[in-house]
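Thread: Newbie trying to understand structure tokens

Hi all, I'm a second-year student working on a class project, and my supervisor (Dr. K.) asked me to get a predicted structure for one chain before our next meeting. I've only ever worked with sequences, so writing a 3D structure as a token string is new to me. If someone could post the tokens and maybe explain what I'm looking at, I'd be very grateful. Here's the chain:
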Amino acid sequence: MTKEQAGKTKALPIKELEQLYKQDGNLKYSETKKHQLETSERRYRRLFEAAQDGILILDAETAEVTDVNPFLIDMLGYSKEEFVGKKLWDIGAFKNIKVAKSAFAKLQSEHYIRYDDMPLETKNGRLISVEFVSNVYDVDHTSVIQCNIRDITERKIAEQARQMIEDKLRTVIEISELHYRRLFETTQDGRLVLDAETAEVTDVNPFLTDMLGYSKKEFIGKKLWELGFFKNAALAKAAFKELQEKKFIRYEDLPLETSDGRQILVEFISNVYDVDKETVIQCNIRDIAVRKHAAEALSQNQQQQIQIRDQFLSRMSHELRSPLTPIHQFVTILLDGLAGNITSEQREYLTIILNNVNLLRNMVRDLLEVTRAVAGKLEVDLRCVYLTELMPQVIKSYQLVNAKGLIISADIPENLPPVYADYNRICQIIDNLMENAIKFTPEKGTINIKAEVSDDSPEFVRIMATDSGCGISPEEHGKIFNYLYQVENSNEQNHRGLGIGLYICGELVTSHGGKIWVESQLGKGSTFFFTVPIFSIEGQMASILNTTHLVTDFLAIFTVELSHIDKHLLKSKNAQTALWEAWDTLQSTTLSGVAALMPRVLPGRLKEIFFLVACTDQNNAQFLLAQIRTRLGSCVGLQDAGISMIISFTPLNIPLMNQKLSNKILSNITRDVENFMKTTSNNGGC
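---
Reply by user tm_fold:
Sure, no problem. This is what the structure looks like when written as tokens:
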């Protein structure tokens, strides 16, 4: 550019330059705005097309449809062409033109309408329910209407179903309440409803007002302990407190007083319930006078029946025993050859007779035992019994008479402690178990009797009878000790007997304070167990061997031998009564803390021996000996039964002077006393 040209060119004013820049900026802004609008429109169109509700766009002036989304097309079954350009009321789905025009006019004025349940008809004639919400919007200075249409047919069906269920439930509740009220009013037991917090009566049924003679007004609003028939207010308050804590109380025999002063006995049961979010108490009150009288009458009748049955069994047993005794005696006379020689065939027949007579005698004996057991008169004479002597004798008798060739063995340790039991009853239990084992064990089988101190209960001896017989199913283990029960799988031969042997065993073991049970499997034999308490005089010895009395080293063991003057057996009723009289006399003679009467030991056939132990010196022992002789000498029963007595004492030295009593000292002295009693009984109790 030349200077002349430069001089001719004029510089633009600043304002014009700013204007040019501003125009350029508006252009760029317009393009940005256009891009944003296009993006927004695309986003709206996507939402419009993908919406899961029907959408209808109308011209706000003419009500003509300008757009419709696919969801509404599918919902109503019309094509897009059948929507666009038509007025709202010209669309087939809107059947009521008048209502549609009215709704459009309202929408124009209020810019919003909503119908929660509008009926529409699809193109195929199906009626549906929709939620219809419509708004007026301004878009590019033009008013448009958007209608959102949601199909609520399924929701409406669900609501109708729920309403139907609620109606039915309400009806059931109303019927239930009506039934409860009818039952409450008509039940033949007293009903009392209380407030769970205050114990005030809120309702009472007519039966209770009639039972107690009080009017309904005399119940309602009063607390439980303010009611006239509850005389003991403190007891009623305590019962209510217990009911609040435990939610349940029951009184089997509660005394109440009626309005006329009559005493009645009721069964009173009370429970806490939640009713309509409130806690209430219902008391059921039943007059048990009639029931109690009926129960007493039934019990009396049962006792009479039992008495008649027992009398019949007892009389029948005695009547059967009478002819059996001579039959048994004469058969044994014939078998022993006392009436002359007999042939082998005759011996065989007589042996069959004897076996069946013995079987019948055992049945009669068992019947008598059952009668006593049911009446609670099953007697046991508890003494010190040495199983080491008893059991080998019992087992030997079965080993000698062994027709089936069974292998019968016993396992009795020599150091087995004595038991506190009835000698004859223990024999009876073992006899029953042995006979049972022999009955169900096949030829050449094995039977073993074992005794040991129980591992589970060291104060008991456990006796086991094991056989290799047919066994017993687990289902029958608890049944075989029941009265008259016999195992079902046994053959006819094994069913011989009354089925009461094991029942009697159970009763006898229980009377000893022990337990009886069986372990068995079918085809694998059986083991019967029973326990009897161990005989121990340690507790009695401890009462006299205290620190005070150990200053002396002298222990006196008094022996009282009783026998018949004519050497008769001590089995008569008079003899047994006299022996118990002597026992009671010795018990009254002992001085507490000085002398102790030991339990009775195994009786001999001709003698019975009682032992009394005293921790004293020589002079006092002589005095006690004289006292025992005097008191026993005055026993009338001993004199009438013809029983004589020999009384003596034996000193037992205690080389432990001035030492404190310990468990070891006590055990040693107790062992010496037991050994003395055992030796004396074996030597003198013949």
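A couple of things are worth pointing out once you decode it. The first helix runs from residue 3 to 8. Residues 182 and 441 are 67 Å apart (CA to CA). Feel free to ask follow-ups in this thread.
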